[in-house]
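Section: Multi-chain targets

For targets with more than one molecule, the full set of components is provided together so that the structure can be written out for the assembly as a whole rather than chain by chain. Components appear in the order listed by the source. The example entry contains two components.
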Amino acid sequence: MEYQDIELLRFTTAGSVDDGKSTLIGRLLYDSKSIFQDQLDAVEASSKSKGFDYVDLSLLTDGLKSEREQGITIDVAYRYFATPKRKFIIADTPGHIQYTRNMVTGASTANLAIILIDARKGMLEQTHRHAFIASLLRIPHAIVCVNKMDLVDYSEEVYANIVSDFKAFSSKLGIKDIQFIPISALNGDNVVNRSENMDWYNGSTLMYHLETVHISSDHNLVDCRFPIQSVIRPHTLENQDYRGFAGRIDGGVFKPGDKVKSLPSGFVSTIKTIELNGEQIEEAFAPMSVTMTLEDEIDNSRGDMIVRENNVPEVSQDLEVLVTWMSSTPIQTRTKVVIKHTTNETVGMVKELKYKIDINTLHRIEDIDKVEMNDIARVSIRTAKPIFYDAYKRNRQTGSIIIIDEQTNETIGAGMII
Amino acid sequence: MSNYVINHLKELESEAIFVIREIAAQFENPVLLFSGGKDSILLTHLAKKAFFPAKIPFPLIHIDTGHNFPETIAFRDALVERLGVKLIVGSVQEAIDKGRAKEETGADASRNSLQIVSLLDTLEDYKVDAAMGGARRDEEKARAKERFFSHRDEFGQWDPKNQRPELWNLFNGRKNYGEHFRVFPISNWTEMDVWEYIKLENIELPSLYFSHQRDCVVRDGVILANSEFIKLKEGEEVVNMTIRYRTCGDMPITGAVESTADDLDKIIEEIATTRTTERGGRADDKRAETAMEDRKKQGYF
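Its structure, encoded as tokens over all components, is:
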């Protein structure tokens, strides 16, 4: 069946209520027929009872009671739609400053970011923030949608100025692939259908771009990394000696017969089989979940990592990390924390706070004594046991950590290893 | 597949298996909440794949309202037998008999909310620290905000405004004594994904999902199976109809759709063209605009 052979694209949208983000999402869902009649009826009824004279599509995405009451988006909402070419997952994140943590959350798994700019307002502080977070989290692709073109008479000049402003800012960021599209989400110009109001624009529509952007190289296919989640031992008569290592591949391509090395033990062996549910797999790569068996009996356990003999990750107890802080309790030096990295968990301590980044100017603020909620800062962390990592820019899975409060068990920070 | 790309169903499968394995590794007493519906059947299938050739290393919990379709119970027992996995049944009738829960009255009475009591009691009895379920984010607007690892306080409550951020594939299952987690491995699947995967993997389902003849009552536009649990209101009559179910909850609250789709291809075709959501027929969601959020906060699935 052909429909089954489509790829999955995860993207995030960032923008404030006024940017027309909900309208854009509403249009993508509506034009791809992903909104159902009963959902639309409910939103219509709800809009009417609130006294609106239009259908407020944001009511589709704002699901929580307090969100509906306050008319704002509090939390990341996930939305789904599909076209015959691709299936999409939208992480719809709120744009207000106090919810940076949600933007970072949505961005962490995205292949692509849609950054919305109101054509009447141009680049705003929050545009800087969105672009910076997209680059910080290494989202491989970005689409800048200059929205509300209908309210600036579809002016090419207005569009061109915004594009050049954005490029001036983003040249410092290092996002690899940025596309610009002038749209009107309200009227549908260049969203799914080409606009008849902007002859001067020769590029593709938003939907076309979402359907065709090349995402197969978004995963690292070079450095073989297989963190072990658990060891499968059936303890049955027919499988007495079976010892399978269960996990999800984070990088590279593994094949049966490959010489591999196990970390931290350093033991070397050969892959006997790669399988799932008893079916043999010839080549395994990210993000596949598999079970691996080895020719030799090696005492691996959860948190260990299987890699290629001649391509090993960094092994260290000292990490240089860019953190986004997500807790109302600030971090200070000597703060003791729990670190989660791949399937590994260890305690750690913040040794040094190096600098904060001013998210609007990208300038460094040196000499800091604490890092607070929504701050992005570079810190040094010492862990109790060695971590096997790659730089985040090389591998988003083996280069990321979360920081957990030892007392409350809350996730208080997200870190990208430099 | 060439080019080192996996298709969307394989990617969703891989994500779900990763999450299921994380549950088994991070918790001492995990369970799988088995409702007998297609999503929990799918989840059980994924759990089997995750640990093969070992057996599923945690029990299934079924909250029996006493209002289940007989087909659901028969299917459940056969599945458990085939997989060699432990089944724990929490009974709503028992909770009522013990005075822990109070039966609703009136023609629209349902045992849907009563399940919360039995569920929380059962989880406590077995000292469950992680209960995984087949809820999906596309089902309902409150569920769209749900995490994969969803923290519950010692009263089993969900605090939607204060959820832990969830980044990359790093899931934080740490908790204090008495708290537990609900985990949703198939969060990112849509109804269509579920059906396509069921077809791809040839997963067996209860006959309720396929077109059949049944005596029904149409109430407020919802087609309900006629059963001993339904009290006819004035003017209502029993009609024999050709129907199937898109979701399976309790007999008195699960709405059927008129359908002649009697195999997976026809069902997939039907879903591709349908204009209502699958929970559109669920009377339990229609009690208030935020009915699902309210129940979830109290500890519902």
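The mean pLDDT of chain A is 89.
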